[in-house]
Amino acid sequence: MKMKRRSFLKACGVLTGYAMLSVNIASEAFAAAMSFVALRQKSVYATDANPKIYKFRKSQNNPMITKIYNKDSGFLHDGPCGHKSHELLHTEYIDRSAKLSALKAKGYKFNF
Description:
The chain is an all-alpha fold. It is flat and about 95 Å long. The chain is built from four helices and no strands. It has helices at about 5-50, 65-70, 85-90, 95-105. The longest helix is centred in the first third of the chain and has 45 residues, at about 5-50. The protein folds into two domains: about 10-50; about 55-95, no CATH class. Helices cover about 60% and strands about 0% of the residues.
């Protein structure tokens, strides 16, 4: 492809302009995103510090939780780390991949 010097300089000027414009647009977009993050962070902290929304900042200060764990009449009377609370409030992982593979080998099809 043959290009005259004037056409080459014009093309270089256009490409340089596009490069500078894209850098400027990218920096403006990044600045806008960071200002949004700062605004969101400020609103989250302000909401979290509002005592009208969060009366009990710690779960151990919540009267319903203390009533549940009460030693005399509470449902989970054996304490927060007791057997009953562990049984009801914690989850366990069961590996079912072998059964799933066996069903797939038999020809079952799944939609997930």
